[in-house]
Design goal:
The chain has six helices and nine strands; from the N terminus they run ααβαβαββββαβαββ. It is of the alpha/beta class. It has a single domain, classed as Vaccinia Virus protein VP39 (Rossmann fold, 3-Layer(aba) Sandwich), CATH 3.40.50. It starts with 7 loop residues before the first helix and ends with a strand. The mean pLDDT is 96. The structure holds S-adenosylmethionine.
Length: 234
């Protein structure tokens, strides 16, 4: 396991991505086409839209928690898990105080009415804690192709769900040996997901979610993530 997600620059990049991408100052030199900002919030909204029950949601690989705060507008309880200490510390502070300050910038989750305060904890998606309980919805946005063993992670989700639970995966399908040994890649991604999930889940939908992630004020990555939604079989 690497500490790729621990640098101050990455923390700042994800705080901006999760809490400021809807502002004109996000990419100040050019207006973005519509529909590319607030990706974490849109992933949370997709999860809410497809869910059948609204008691407990898990945001796995939550980073600094943008999707978790959106899930909290619909679910009674939201748990965010990430491997990065600095991301979890920032998300925890956002949840407990409502703000997080980095240099001169103050980050605040949207003021939408929330049913709960999400709680955040450090964890490894490939070896999940045993005490998590059962969830009505699990979101994994842009996590699959950053894992050393995505199949182990998917298999681990079985113990966290029940019939009718919803799984939402969004992924840029950017498999890279820096994160995942080639023999563990789910490639093509959707086929890999089917191979692992078909025995216990049904596909509900597959669609694209475009987004822009800023590197700095004059450069950004444009990505079209593939989203797939699955329901745990009876
Ligand atoms: C590409 S970012 C995506 C973050 C967020 N879901 C989003 O869509 O903006 C991947 C996240 O997964 C986390 N991560 C990487 N490996 C992990 C693992 N084994 N278990 C839990 N989280 C992990 C990283 O710390 C990072 O926050």
């Amino acid at each position: 396991m690497t500490d790729t997600y621990e640098s101050p620059a990455l923390l700042r990049q994800y705080l901006d991505f999760h809490y400021r991408s809807g502002e004109t100052s996000y990419l100040p030199h050019h207006e973005l086409p519509e529909g590319l900002t607030e990706y974490p919030q849109r992933c949370g909204e997709v999860t809410i839209e497809y869910s059948n029950r609204y008691q407990r949601a898990l945001d796995l690989g939550c980073a600094v928690g943008g999707s978790s705060f959106t899930l909290a507008t619909a679910f009674d309880e939201v748990v965010g898990i990430d491997f990065s200490d600095s991301f979890i510390d920032a998300a925890t502070q956002l949840a407990s105080t409502g703000t997080f300050r980095s240099s001169e910038v103050v980050y605040t989750p949207s003021s939408d009415h929330r049913k709960c305060r999400p709680h955040f904890r450090k964890g490894n998606a490939c070896a999940l804690p045993q005490d998590l309980g059962c969830f009505d919805a699990i979101l994994m946005s842009n996590l699959l192709c950053r894992l050393p063993d995505p199949t182990a992670c998917l298999e681990g989700l079985k113990a966290l769900t029940q019939p009718g639970s919803i799984l939402v995966f969004t992924t840029p399908c950017s498999w890279d040996e820096a994160f995942t040994p080639r023999e563990k890649w789910l490639w093509p991604t959707l086929e890999g997901l089917h191979q692992t999930l078909d025995p216990w889940c049904e596909t509900c939908d597959v669609f694209d979610i475009p987004f822009v992630l800023k590197d700095h004020d004059r450069r950004a990555q444009f990505t079209v993530a593939q989203a797939s939604v699955w329901e745990v079989k009876a």
